[in-house]
Specification:
The protein has 458 residues and is mainly α. The chain has one domain. It is 70% helix and 2% strand. It contains 19 helices and two strands. The chain has helices at residues 20-25, 27-52, 57-60, 64-77, 85-103, 109-132, 135-161, 197-216, 223-240, 243-260, 264-284, 288-308, 310-328, 330-334, 347-354, 365-399, 406-420, 426-441, 453-456; strands at 181-184, 187-189. It has a two-stranded antiparallel ribbon.
Length: 458
């Protein structure tokens, strides 16, 4: 029997000579272009639905799905998507849940197809990205994010100060009521180029991982670009009126400090970056441009803390409490053994089944999984996501010993997104697939080609 290679390498992978013809043929290059297209569609899908092609807003909701299907099938056909316990387990869960939804659940074929695509397309896409990309590709994606963050920050500033009736705030399908979400002091949370404000939060959360990384490895990017992206990240926190974004940046900072605590060379750079960031915030806070966003943001924090019971309610009950409620709460005990049917917890299902938008199952991700697929299948999907994240985190931690910081910093965001990200929402699903893929890819050294099937079989 041919020995199998680990799904996530802890050390530089040896060259795979059998895969060289594939790389030389251009197939690998084509697959990489497909991943870049997925990334760009994720960033600008909302712009297409709001401003460019509002009449096609509904079909554009799944514009990335055909691309994801092609990437998965093409990668599998070329032997670059071998079976592994995570992929096999989630595929089995998805197929079983699809048929139980039709037999025992909502009985709606369209809702079931829409729901199962999450597990059969976008979850495998993580392994496609992880196999086709390597660390150099992930770094290049980070540099592109730095460039995009500059106009994105200008856009959210315009959205913040503009009325909801303005063109920059136009909603999906050209909705004149606006795409902003309630914030504080009469200001709305801006969505940026995304359909909803959560995309804006996830964009800057991912950006923060690369901002810290490039500060610690400054030769990878020009200093002027890094300064501009850092200012954009800091400004985005009050402009977004998003506590989630603030908490995520703090978590990424904490991970960065852990990574460099035993390395004086990196620690000096980290302290310099923090000092520079504090200085930038202090200067910007004195300008009229950020005065209103800062006031709205602090008011939002105070109002939410009063409702949720302070930091404990915000950080502990909101995150861990919702996870526990999904498993032992009353909604879980009331769900049928096979659930109400996969896909029923999405807004698309709500429109098809009830004619209105809402949450027919649960707003929280774990509650949705158990409510849609039942306790057995739902818990299995949750455990697969937790174990996958644990394996990536462990591999990333081990690479810290070799001085590789990028996988570890990406894990700071992945720990919240991969286990409990709300995959029923297309933008959150897209960021989860992308993030899961680049976390795996960042573990692969640059300029290595994917190994042949016999070397990658689980």
């Amino acid at each position: 029997m041919t020995p199998s290679a680990p799904a996530f390498p802890h050390a530089p992978a040896r060259p795979a000579t059998a895969a060289l013809p594939l790389a030389a043929s251009g197939t690998l290059r084509l697959l990489k272009r497909g991943i870049w297209a997925y990334f760009l569609l994720l960033i600008f899908e909302g712009a297409l639905r709001k401003w460019v092609l509002p009449g096609l807003a509904a079909p554009l909701l799944i514009i990335r799905d055909p691309l994801a299907l092609w990437l998965v099938l093409a990668t599998w056909r070329h032997g670059l998507l071998p079976a592994n316990p995570f992929l096999t387990g989630m595929t089995v869960v998805g197929i079983v849940a699809f048929f139980t939804a039709l037999l025992f659940g909502h009985h709606n074929l369209y809702v079931a197809v829409y729901g199962v695509r999450i597990l059969l397309l976008h979850f495998p896409l993580m392994f496609v990205i992880g196999r086709v990309f390597d660390r150099s590709d992930v770094e290049q994606l980070g540099r592109v994010l730095l460039w995009i963050s500059i106009p994105m920050t200008i856009l959210i500033a315009l959205q913040f100060y503009s009325p909801q009736s303005a063109w920059v705030n136009r909603g999906v399908g050209g909705d004149m009521e606006g795409a902003g979400f309630s914030g504080a002091l009469g200001f709305f949370r801006p969505p940026g180029t995304f359909s909803f404000t959560n995309g804006n939060t996830m964009f800057y959360s991912l950006l923060s991982c690369f901002v810290f990384y490039f500060w610690l490895t400054p030769r990878s990017v020009t200093r002027l670009l890094l300064l501009a992206a850092t200012a954009g990240l800091l400004a985005s926190i009050p402009f977004s009126i998003s506590r989630t974004l603030l908490f995520q940046v703090i978590i990424t900072l904490f991970f960065a400090m852990l990574a460099v605590s035993s390395r004086p060379r990196y620690l000096t750079r980290m302290l310099s970056a923090i000092f520079g960031g504090v200085l930038v915030v202090a200067v910007l806070s004195q300008t009229s441009l950020l005065a209103d966003p800062l006031e709205a943001f602090t008011t939002r924090i105070e109002m939410a803390s009063e409702v949720e019971g302070g930091a404990k309610g915000t950080l502990v009950d909101r995150y861990l409490g919702s996870m526990a409620e999904a498993i032992v709460g009353t909604k879980s005990s009331q769900a049928p053994f096979f659930g109400f049917g996969i896909g029923m917890g999405t807004n698309v299902a709500s429109n098809l089944l009830s004619g209105d938008r809402g949450f027919l199952v649960s707003e929280e991700e774990w509650g949705r999984l158990i409510g849609e697929m039942g306790l057995l299948l739902g818990l299995t999907a949750i455990v697969i996501r937790l174990l996958l994240m644990a394996k990536i985190a462990l591999a990333s931690y081990r690479q810290l010993a070799t001085g590789e910081l990028l996988p570890w910093l990406l894990v700071s965001f992945g720990l919240l997104v991969l286990p409990q990200g709300q995959w029923a929402q297309p933008t959150a699903l897209g960021f989860s697939s992308l993030l899961g893929g680049i976390m795996i890819a960042a573990l692969r050294p640059p300029k290595t080609v994917p190994a042949p099937p016999e070397a990658l079989a689980a």
